[in-house]
Amino acid sequence: MNVQEISNAYQDMKDLQEQFKEAHKMSQTLMKDQKSPQQYKQLIMEKEEEREQLMSKINRVKGKVDAAGARMDTADFEQLQKMCNKLRRCQVEMGPSACTGL
Predict the structure, then answer these.
(1) Measured by CB atoms within 10 angstroms of the end CB, which terminus of the chain is less buried, N or C?
(2) Mean pLDDT, residues 16-41 taken together
(3) Chain CA centroid to CA 95, Å
């Protein structure tokens, strides 16, 4: 080997060392950010509990809506709908604060 080949080989080695350092730093960062299986299990349990709470809340609201609907006959509903339409028209024409006495 001549001096030029040795110099080129040395420079190639230095470049490869830099590439290795960057790859190693990236792998360390990825490993640090990765969660353990226990952390994932805990997260899943929390989300399942949250889902159950939301489902329970939805069922309570559905029950209230169904109960209110069962108590309201067609005439009551039509009267309520007319009042809501009147309120909406008043708010559009005169502004929300002008329609408090309807």
Answers:
(1) N
(2) 88
(3) 35
| Closest listed residue to residue 64, CA positions, set 72, 54, 74 | 72
Based on the fold, state whether residues 19 and 45 are members of the same structural domain: no
Which uninterrupted H or E stretch holds 15? helix 3-33
pLDDT value for 70: 65
Percent of residues, the chain, with pLDDT higher than 90 = 32
The answer to whether position 101 is within a domain reads no
Does pTM surpass 0.70?
A: no
Q: State the Cα–Cα distance between residues 66 and 73, nearest whole angstrom.
A: 12
Write the burial class of residue 6 (CB in 10 Å: 0-12 exposed, 13-18 middle, 19+ buried): exposed
Residues 45 and 71 in one domain: yes
Contact 83, 102 (CB under 8 A): yes
Angle value at C-alpha 90, between 85 and 92, nearest 5 degrees: 95
Condensed to tens digits (0 to 9), the pLDDT of residues 57-73 reads 998 888 887 776 666 66
